[in-house]
Amino acid sequence: GMADRIIGMRTTLRENLEKLGSPLSWEHITNQ
């Protein structure tokens, strides 16, 4: 469903930021 796609996108985004070691806070992405 649409919600699953959005959750998947957020999860992927967070994982990518973690891999890059981004100094940006990614918690707001999953906490929305």
UniProtKB/TrEMBL annotation:
- Where does the source fall among the domains of life? Eukaryota
Organism per entry: Nymphaea colorata (pocket water lily)
Q: What is this protein called?
A: Uncharacterized protein
The upper taxonomy is:
Eukaryota, Viridiplantae, Streptophyta, Embryophyta, Tracheophyta
InterPro entries in the record: PyrdxlP-dep_Trfase_small
